[in-house]
Write a structure and sequence with these properties.
The chain is α/β, with parallel strands linked by helices and 412 residues long. It has helices spanning 2-9, 30-35, 48-52, 57-65, 82-94, 106-121, 196-215, 221-243, 248-263, 272-283, 288-303, 308-317, 327-344, 360-369, 382-392, and strands at residues 19-22, 41-45, 69-73, 99-104, 144-148, 160-165, 170-175, 183-186. The relative contact order is 0.11.
């Protein structure tokens, strides 16, 4: 409890090292914008799926038109490991690149950030894990341009990279202002080919960032502002983007939602949902977006009483008319609204994602160890995490009371 108070009361700051350029068709300006960073040869970091979808073609064409050489590294995997990073670093150095461009989702952008860390520090990114006893970042990474093709992680503007250590079966963070992208280019045209299930999962991931950062102990006015707008955008646009992938307005709205939710991290962290998703993802190869999306409702159901006023405001941002509701009813209405959205966009349960309920005790212990536990708005211990996991598997009854006389929304 003393540690939480100490961290909550320390000097807070908000930095945005990343220049943001956005617009429909904005990707065509990639070359001239990257050239302004003084880059002559980039390592383009992406994954095989993005390459096969042809999404890197307009990026490469724009880079080459601006006279910038391009070396392709398309070996990024979901939950990228230290080995994926090391191989990218080796290629960057061998080809004598002087800049990075990441095209894809969070895995590609995080890999590019981690490659940048290794290039400028001359040692493995694992040495810079954001943990007690490890080194802080000391040098700015090479000029990095992020071009997201999904609307979820917000990694295009966050000051973090999440990398997997396969030996420990553990996903660790490394970060701070020195790791942030120098430039991000957001073009909703790159999002229109995203399948519905990925649109849904990444969209709820963005919502989770916004809700957790709005309610966590690290919140401050700047992060509150962007988090609330991100929540409003997800509530307004996610169902449309899932239903009609070519809806460019919905894609643009979700692209901004993800970016704003990424900014809501500030230079800090989130809460229980990401503590759970991050530790689970290091043990079982689940997709992060789907994983955290399945957990968000139960986490909110546990957390609402820690910040009831903010949860009531979340309900309003989700489009709920809270007039005439008590504070408790309004706070719980936020939880119900999120459960309904998760249901509408057909997020698979943890069980459907291949997570066995028998692992709950182990998963709860690992989640409690995650640094993001400290930010959670309600005090939580291993038993608290066990309750949330059991709720995810519908092994605990709903604690929500139907304010409207209807059956409470939840799992199952």
């Amino acid at each position: 409890m003393f540690m939480r108070f100490e961290r909550m009361e320390r000097l807070k700051s908000f930095e945005m090292p990343t220049v943001l350029k956005h617009g429909i068709g904005a990707v065509q300006y990639t070359g001239e914008e990257v050239k302004k960073l003084g880059v002559t040869k980039v390592l383009l970091v992406t994954d095989p799926g993005v390459r096969k979808a042809g999404l890197i073609h307009p990026v490469i064409e724009s880079l080459e038109a601006a006279g910038i050489s391009c070396v392709l590294y398309d070996k990024v995997e979901p939950n990228p490991s230290i080995h994926v990073v090391a191989n990218g670093t080796e290629l960057y150095l061998a080809e004598q690149c002087d800049g990075l461009v990441a095209v894809g989702g969070g895995s590609s952008m995080d890999t590019a950030k981690a490659i940048g860390v290794e290039v400028v520090h001359g040692e493995p990114v694992l040495n810079y894990e954001a943990a007690e006893g490890k080194k802080p970042l000391e040098k700015r990474i090479p000029p990095l341009t992020t071009i997201p093709t999904t609307a979820g992680t917000g990694s295009e503007v966050t000051q973090w990279a999440v990398i997997t250590d396969p030996y420990r079966k553990f996903k660790f963070n490394t970060g701070g202002p020195l790791i942030a992208a120098h430039l991000t280019i957001i073009d909703p045209n790159l999002h229109t080919s995203m399948p519905a299930h990925i649109t849904a999962a990444t969209g709820i991931d963005a919502l989770s960032h916004a809700i957790e950062c709005y309610t966590c102990h690290y919140a401050q006015p700047m992060t509150d502002a962007v988090a609330l707008l991100a929540i409003e955008y997800v509530a307004k646009y996610l169902r449309r983007a899932v239903a009609n992938g070519k809806d460019i307005e919905a894609r643009y709205g979700m692209a901004h939602a993800a970016m704003l939710a990424g900014l809501s991290y500030g230079s800090e962290s989130a809460g229980a949902a990401h503590a759970m998703a991050q530790t689970l993802g290091g043990i079982i190869p689940v997709a992060h977006g789907q994983c955290v999306a399945a957990m968000l409702g139960p986490v909110m159901e546990y957390n609402w009483m820690g910040e009831p006023e903010k949860f009531a405001r979340i309900a309003q941002a989700m489009g709920v008319n809270i007039h005439g509701m008590s504070l408790e009813e309004a706070a719980k209405a936020a939880v119900s609204a999120v459960y309904q959205l998760v249901k509408d966009v057909e997020i698979p349960t943890l069980e459907e994602q291949g997570v066995p309920a028998e692992m709950i005790p182990q998963l709860a212990v690992e989640a409690y160890k995650d640094p993001q536990t400290v930010g959670n708005p309600r005090d939580i211990d291993v038993k608290g995490y066990e309750w949330i996991y059991r709720r995810c598997f519908n092994l605990e009854p709903s604690t929500l009371e139907a304010a409207t006389g209807k059956q409470p929304l939840g799992i199952g």
